[in-house]
Specification:
This protein is of the alpha+beta class. The protein is built from 9 helices and 16 strands. The two termini are 87 Å apart. About 2% of the residues have low confidence.
């Protein structure tokens, strides 16, 4: 028993499930897993930006505080007193007075300052009431202990040290300057002692790590260390306000993905049914063509692969029909070749009799008879018809010509002369611009070229309405000659322009469909190109390009 296989529709459905629904499920799982990490990365970036702004502000403010402290250390009275091993009372008092005057201008930024000599003995303090502390903070007024060396302005020798307590409010940004992140807390620690320089509502020990839990809520921290002023800054903020939007979005996206997955499954089911129906129709059409029904077509769905297959199938059947039609035309053209040989024989025989009769009449006429001119013209036309029939039919049958230098104007003028009756019969006018008096040499068969031009001129004349116009233009181009025949007739419909060179194809009931086919064959035999441009209702232009030739 043959095992039962899955239908094409079931296979397509499984492909959609494996290629679309499963990746959507994995995407939903990934969104849920990355929600917290995305919120954490965003919070760290925001905290880093805020802390960077705080550090920049502290750096700018520290430049002002440091310049104030250097004025104390570089006081002339202080340096004079420190240079002397046993300064006088007057020198000591002068240093204390100058320190007090300088300190008065920085009281809002510097809480106190103490000057020690090289042996570490405190010599002066400002303000003078109360000794200097060794760092840390005082209640309600956090301060940072800063130590600067005092060096001789003249020699650079170390004279002592300046200990100053700088107010934190003068270094930190005003107001809530670190509030770039909602709920963030700034902690500042002395680099030397590790003491907290700001009052904190959170245990300062928690700020030692990258994250901590406070009030059952996770917090993240970022940190930065400054060498001047010597402090360590930590900015912390709760994580939940940043992860919650991502988690909500992830949950919402999971629901959306579930809905999309269901919609994809439903759409896949619908599309597979439609696709398999199209494939069934395509299989039926292929089977019909295999039985000889070349007119069978299938519906072309735009855009998808099934539509491309349908278009390819229709193109294949159209190409097959065209190939069979061309094969039939070639067989008909072969029959015409045989008919042409017989026709040439049948035309030459009466032409030969006519020529001989006319020659006998010419011999019997007196030398001064006016009829001699008419007979000479008739004999010339008989010779021209004989040459044209022989040359044109030779090209039509074999595609070869006898090439020799020809002034292109000669066969063109002969064709114009022969086409004038047809032009007059349709009430048309002929305008010609034959490119000056110098010969335009090409290598060709004059009778065949004359037949080519005559076919084109007759087609142009037959397309004219009363009062129409045919323009013939001859010009040189690069290394060849271009002949254009333009008419103001009805033009050729766009759907017929591609078939006009096919043998036996004609839009006129009385047409044979051989004129343009023979003309194109003659042009090809001469190594030339024949092109047609046409606008329905405005006329057509036929352009023949032939390679040039040296003068005969």
């Amino acid at each position: 028993m043959r095992p039962r296989s899955l239908s094409l529709r079931s296979k397509f459905t499984l492909i959609v499930l494996g290629g679309a629904v499963l990746p959507l499920a994995l995407l939903g799982l990934w969104l849920n897993r990355t929600a917290e990490r995305s919120g954490e990365e965003l919070l760290r970036a925001r905290l880093g930006t805020s802390l960077g702004q705080i550090v920049d502000e502290i750096g700018l403010r520290w430049l002002g505080r440091r310049s104030q402290l250097l004025r104390l250390a570089e006081s002339s009275a202080v340096q004079t007193a420190l240079r002397e091993n046993s300064p006088s009372r007057e020198t000591e008092d002068a240093a204390q007075i100058e320190l007090g005057e300088l300190f008065a201008g920085m009281r809002d930024a510097v809480e106190s300052a103490t000057v020690e000599d090289a042996s570490g003995v405190a010599r002066w303090s400002v303000p003078s009431e109360g000794p200097a502390t060794s760092g840390g903070t005082t209640l309600g007024n956090p301060a940072l202990l800063v130590r600067l060396g005092i060096y001789d302005n003249a020699t650079g020798a170390r004279l002592g040290r300046l200990d100053a307590r700088v107010s934190m409010s003068s270094l930190l940004p005003g107001g809530a300057g670190w509030g770039g992140v909602s709920g963030s807390v700034l902690a500042v620690f002395d680099r030397g002692t590790g003491a907290s320089l700001l009052p904190l509502s959170i245990d300062p020990a928690l700020f030692a790590g990258d994250r901590f839990v406070w009030g059952e809520e996770p917090w993240l921290t970022v940190r930065h260390t400054l060498h001047e002023p010597p402090m360590h800054l930590v900015l912390a903020a709760p994580l939940t306000p940043f992860t919650e939007p991502f988690q909500q979005a992830a949950r919402r996206n999971i629901w959306i993905l579930a809905i999309v997955a269901l919609a994809v499954f439903a759409l896949a089911t619908l599309l597979t049914r439609r696709t398999t129906r199209a494939l069934v129709r395509l299989a039926a059409a292929a089977e019909a063509v295999s039985h000889g029904d070349l007119e069978r077509k299938v519906e072309e769905a735009p855009g998808d692969e099934v539509g491309r297959v349908a278009r390819a199938f229709n193109s294949m059947t159209e190409s097959l029909r065209r190939t069979l039609r061309e094969l039939s035309q070639r067989q008909a053209l072969a029959a015409v070749g045989e008919f042409a040989a017989s026709l040439a024989h049948e035309v030459r025989n009466p032409l030969t009799s006519i020529r001989l009769d006319l020659q006998r009449v010419e011999e019997k006429l007196p030398q001064d008879s006016d009829a001699r001119e008419l007979l000479g013209r008739a004999l010339g036309e008989v010779e021209r018809v004989d040459r044209s029939v022989t040359g044109a039919l030779r090209v039509a049958r074999s595609g070869s010509v006898t090439l020799e230098p020809v002034d292109i104007r000669q066969p063109l003028e002969s064709a114009i002369h022969s086409a004038e009756p047809e032009l007059k019969a349709h009430g048309g006018m002929l305008e010609q611009e034959l490119g000056g008096a110098d010969p335009l040499w090409v290598k060709g068969d004059a009778p065949a070229l004359e037949q080519l031009f005559l076919n084109l001129l007759l087609n142009a004349a037959q397309a004219l309405d009363e009062g129409g116009r045919v323009e013939v233009t001859v010009a040189r181009y690069r290394d060849g000659v271009s002949i254009s025949i333009r008419d103001t007739g009805r033009g050729i419909p766009l759907e017929n322009i591609e078939r006009i060179f096919e043998p036996f194809y004609s839009t006129r009931p009385e047409g044979t469909g051989l004129g343009l086919a023979i003309a194109q064959r003659i042009a090809t035999a001469h190594g030339g190109e024949l092109e047609i441009e046409s606008t329905p209702g405005a006329g057509s232009t036929v352009r023949l390009r032939l390679p040039g030739s040296p003068p005969a």
